[in-house]
Design goal:
By secondary structure, the protein is α+β, with helices and mostly antiparallel strands. Helices cover 50% and strands 11% of the residues. It folds into two domains: 50 residues; 261 residues, no CATH class. It contains 17 helices and seven strands.
Length: 334
């Protein structure tokens, strides 16, 4: 039975449950049972950390399209955005899958190396030498094809982010907003990797040597915006850029917490959508009128088909109007 003071957003509660599980595990003689209870304790600890992290991000509630425009228009300097259809924690796909399979996250660097090795060996176009010579380009292609990597997709366009956030409606959608000036200046001040990261701003030094130095060899917790010198089509169309953690032997949260003032409204903000039915329809219509659909951002027939799920309200309107039926004069794409 849950205590009267139980709150799902209270990290202390989940931390207490973790301690209870560990105390119980100490009393269990059967080794298999003990390990199962310890796994439960670790789950509670991860949940406590996740809830605590969610509470510390600066959050703004968005209740209309106009509020969304006002917020992103008010960002000073250059910002990047990440849209999510659910309020998931910020983490790379590599971290997410390693945790889902209950692997030791400390092994992430060597797991990543094995994945890169296998991808390079099996990549169908062996004439594409950049796959073998440029690890960041290789990771970008792995991400493009759906492999788990350390890279986290962001975009310079708040409207592209809004499209990804609203793919399944806006009931649980969020958009993350990151100040690029703060991110760059903070990491460039780091005494161990800052000078090399400054060098990477020059195309002549955005190469394998500098990437290995700061991301594969230093094991320094930080996050930095990165793109390979050679961009694939999706990155171009989506105005995409990657947020890359410096030390993947720990979670994304530990990396960003190493950055001073990461929880400031001036640097990192989470927009949480709370739209009524009318506002949801207006939000979706604005995105459709801007042509912010998968048909644009994922070229080809597959992208067009993916756009159906984002245009449910549009097709509902066509259905109510009887578009395509005898006597209808409504165009297929009003």
């Amino acid at each position: 039975m849950m205590p009267a003071s139980f709150c799902i957003d209270d990290p202390a509660y989940w931390g207490g449950r973790a301690q209870e599980a560990r105390t119980l595990a100490d009393e269990i003689k059967d080794e298999t049972s003990k390990q199962m209870v310890l796994q439960i304790a670790e789950t509670y600890e991860r949940l406590a950390n996740h809830v605590e992290a969610k509470k510390r991000y600066f959050v703004k509630v968005v209740q209309s399209w106009d509020e969304f425009i006002e917020i992103v228009s008010g960002h000073k300097g250059r910002w990047v955005y990440r849209g999510q259809p659910k309020d998931w924690p910020l983490q790379s796909s590599l971290e997410r899958y390693i945790r889902a399979w209950d692997c030791n996250i400390a092994l992430s660097p060597i797991i990543e190396r094995q994945m890169i090795r296998d991808f390079r060996r099996r990549y169908p176009d062996q004439t594409d030498t950049a796959i073998h010579e440029d690890t960041l380009y290789c990771l970008a292609m792995m991400q493009h094809h759906g492999a788990p990597t350390r890279l986290i997709d962001w975009t310079y366009s708040p409207f592209v982010a809004a499209k990804f956030a609203a793919e399944e409606g806006t009931r649980n959608a969020v958009i993350w907003c990151l100040n690029t000036n703060w991110c760059r200046e903070t990491v460039e001040a780091d005494p161990m990797v800052g000078n090399v990261l400054k060098q990477r701003a020059d195309d002549a030094f955005r190469d394998e040597v500098t990437f290995h130095s700061v991301y594969l060899d230093a094991h320094r917790p930080f996050v930095c915006l990165e793109n390979p010198l050679r961009l694939n089509q999706r990155l171009v169309l989506q105005r995409g850029i990657f947020l890359c953690p410096g030390d993947i032997s720990v979670g994304f949260q530990q990396n960003i917490e190493a950055m001073g003032d990461w929880d400031s409204e001036q640097n990192l903000v989470k927009l949480v959508f709370r739209l009524d039915k009318t506002q949801v329809a207006q939000f979706a219509d604005h995105l459709k009128q801007m042509n912010m659909t998968s048909a644009l951002l994922f070229p080809g027939f597959d992208g067009f088909v993916l756009s159906f799920r984002e245009l449910i309200l549009h097709y509902e309107t066509l259905a109510r109007q009887g578009t395509g039926l005898a006597g209808s004069t409504v165009p297929m794409w009003p």
